[in-house]
From TrEMBL, chain A:
Its main location: membrane. It comes from Rhizobium oryzicola. CDD domains: TM_PBP1_LivH_like. Keywords: Amino-acid transport, Cell membrane, Membrane, Transmembrane, Transmembrane helix, Transport. The keyword Transferase does not apply. The chain crosses the membrane at residues 6-30, 37-56, 62-83, 95-114, 120-138, 150-173, 193-217, 248-273, 285-307, 319-337. It is found in: Cell membrane. This is Branched-chain amino acid ABC transporter permease. It is a multi-pass membrane protein. Pfam families: BPD_transp_2. Belongs to the binding-protein-dependent transport system permease family. LivHM subfamily.
From TrEMBL, chain B:
GO terms for molecular function: ATP binding. InterPro entries: AAA+_ATPase, ABC_transporter-like_ATP-bd, ABC_transporter-like_CS, BCAA_Transport_ATP-bd_LivF, P-loop_NTPase. Residues 6-238 form the ABC transporter domain. This is ABC transporter ATP-binding protein. Pfam families: ABC_tran. The keyword Manganese does not apply. Keywords: Amino-acid transport, ATP-binding, Nucleotide-binding, Transport. Belongs to the ABC transporter superfamily. CDD domains: ABC_TM1139_LivF_branched.
Length: 351, 241
């Protein structure tokens, strides 16, 4: 293997790893705040890609109807809950949050779908449209079960994936799509290695967002409140941090990350209505390496998986999935030997 | 009769079919330390957890004249009703300073308020100021207790529920912690103090209830109760410290 090839594989692996990193951060965030392994985040990534592709081919993306329907249902569910709990004064807030906000990008999407608009506007509206998906999925399916066991939440998350992918088939059809590259052209590295600009973009976006993530969780009080909920749910509630709001914030951020993933990979990978599952599954390997708890280790794990995948697809393309998922087993064994300290488990049962 | 800050009437709390609190009635006046004492397993923690909204309960309960049955834990905190639970519930993987800042979460937008609260807590617990950057899970038992109380004080609550602040602490530290509890009362915080250590609790409290297997069996001024050897012997195992 020449040095050129190693370099190309490395860059390819890093850009793939960048994608897994973004999705992996979302996995860890949602899991640590809600104990849900949010498998449907892969579907959200695929929907972002399919939505942008629809806009680019001057058609109305089916995701508009899906988001609008989910917004109306979630709003109804929330209103019923509020009235039942006698908190009718919070109705306007609920209607704004669950119905008005998600419907704005739906309407904007309908308005621009058939128009000649700048690419950046299409991307922005795609982002805004996909952003509420996680929150809406949570409100409709997972939140009513929030106190269930992790296993039940996991099973429901998988069921939701199949549901969403099925709806994806109906609203987007079975065809695969590729979007126009956000960045055209190539960059030449010394030694004659050529790298597509899109791959460099992936790495830069992942780096920048990791930095934003770091600052958000390390500096802002909202970020710290999310960490607090993850660290000790009862303690956080006793500080006035509402778990359902923390969960909504986590789903919002995870959906945003998933949407970015979808938009970044759609120019280099053909995306189908069900492509999200594999992306989510591979990204979850990075998150599992991070114990679903540590962001830095998840980042390292994701990059490792990316490089492993690129190496594996060069050496033994047919076996690359087997190689990647085989890594999970030794990692889990190693993790299970690590001491699991959690002195606050007892009070968790009180809530 | 002045309206009580907190009043519970015929409150029941059950774990499934087992009733751990059976028809408790309690009145807590503003500016006082009210204590609930009783042996291990009497139902004190259950009562506090339910009052704070962490457990479902039945009966009637009011805080500042407002019905508690439809208030969540977080609603209570926003209204100045805070619990320091028996398990402390600290954010172990976060530094002392972040634990404290999160204590003022409901007032997070008022930077001057947070700053002032932090200074006040550091003045009261200089130890926490020294350990600002240390992770909460690496603190000693006494320091953890100080952090738990300091964190609850950050939002400047009106009513503080303390569940066994003396638990697991050395006797000399117990006195110190309870002295600080009295200091809080003198600053205008009303306190509901739950203790197994009856003697120490009666020393600082104004009014006391004795709890036994889910019910209040006795109540009275703390000084009267502390001087009644018969009470101490019958309900509190004659523990004298
Ligand atoms: N999570 C629980 N599930 C079932 N029973 C419980 C639970 N927590 C406490 N109990 C029972 O309720 C009773 C009161 O407990 P607790 O309120 O902790 O007492 P105290 O704080 O006075 O020591 C005990 O008999 C205890 O066994
Ligand atoms: Mg107790």
């Amino acid at each position: 293997m020449s040095l050129d090839i190693v370099l190309i594989l490395l860059i390819d692996g890093l850009s793939t790893g960048a994608i897994y990193l973004l999705a992996g951060l979302g996995f860890v965030l949602v899991f640590s705040v809600t104990r849900v392994i949010f498998i449907p985040s892969g579907d959200i990534a695929a929907f972002a890609a399919l939505t942008l592709a629809a806009f680019q081919s001057r058609t109305v993306p089916g995701s508009i109807w899906l988001v609008a329907a989910m917004a109306v249902l979630a709003c109804l569910a929330e209103c019923v809950t509020l009235v039942r709990n006698g908190s009718a004064r919070r109705l306007p807030h609920a209607i704004f949050f669950y119905a008005v906000l998600p419907l704005i990008p739906c309407i904007a999407g309908l308005a621009i779908a058939k128009q000649d608009v700048p690419e950046i506007l299409r991307i922005a509206i795609t982002m805004a449209l996909i952003l509420p998906m996680g929150v809406l999925i949570d409100r409709l399916t997972l939140r009513p079960l929030a106190t269930s066991s992790t296993l039940i939440l996991f099973i429901v998350a998988i069921a939701v994936h199949f549901l969403i992918a099925g709806i994806g088939l109906i609203v987007f059809g079975p065809e695969g799509v590729r979007t126009n590259p956000i960045l055209d052209g190539v960059a030449s590295l010394p030694g004659g290695v050529v790298v597509p600009a899109q791959q460099i973009l992936m790495m830069i976006v992942a780096l920048l967002l990791s930095l934003v993530f770091y600052l958000f969780f390390g500096r802002s009080i909202t970020g710290k409140a999310l960490r607090a909920t993850a660290s000790n749910r009862v303690g956080a509630r006793l500080m006035g941090i509402r778990p359902e709001r923390a969960a909504a914030a986590a789903y919002l951020i995870a959906s945003g990350l998933a949407a970015i993933v979808g938009i970044l990979i759609a120019p280099v990978t053909t995306m189908y209505y069900d492509s999200g599952f594999m992306i989510g599954l591979k990204a979850s390997v990075g998150a599992i390496i991070g114990g679903m708890a540590s962001y830095p280790i998840t980042a390292i794990g994701s990059v490792f998986i990316g490089i492993l995948e690129s190496g594996a697809s060069f050496v033994a393309s047919d076996y690359k999935e087997i190689i990647i998922f085989s890594v999970v087993i030794p990692v889990l064994i190693w993790r299970s030997f690590a001491v699991h300290r959690d002195g606050d488990e007892e009070i968790e049962e009180l809530a | 009769m002045s309206a009580a800050l907190l009043s519970l009437e015929g409150v029941h709390v059950a774990y499934g079919k087992v009733e751990a609190v059976r028809g408790v009635t309690l009145k807590l006046d503003e500016g006082q330390i009210t204590t609930v004492i009783g042996a291990n397993g009497a139902g004190k923690t259950t009562l506090l957890s339910a009052a704070a909204g962490l457990l479902p309960w039945s009966g009637r309960a009011q805080y500042r004249g407002q019905d508690l049955s439809r208030m969540t834990v977080e609603d209570r905190v926003e209204r100045g009703f805070c619990l320091v639970p028996e398990q402390r519930a600290l954010f172990g993987d976060m530094p002392v300073l972040d634990n404290l800042l999160l204590g003022a979460f409901v007032r997070r937008h008022d930077k001057a308020f947070v700053r002032k609260s932090l200074d006040a807590v550091f003045e009261q617990f200089p130890r926490l100021a020294e350990r600002q950057t240390q992770l909460a899970q690496t603190l000693s038992g006494g320091e953890r207790q100080m952090l738990a109380i300091g964190r609850a004080l950050m939002s400047q609550p009106r009513l503080l529920l303390l569940d066994e602040p003396s638990l697991g602490l050395a006797p000399t530290i117990v006195r110190d912690v309870l002295k600080r509890v009295r200091g809080l009362r003198d600053q205008g915080v009303s306190i509901l103090l739950v203790e197994q250590n009856a003697r120490a609790a009666l020393d600082v409290a104004d009014y006391a209830y004795v709890m036994d297997t889910g019910e209040f069996v006795l109540e009275g001024a703390a000084t009267d109760m502390a001087n009644d050897e018969r009470v101490m012997a019958t309900y509190l195992g004659g523990r004298i410290e």
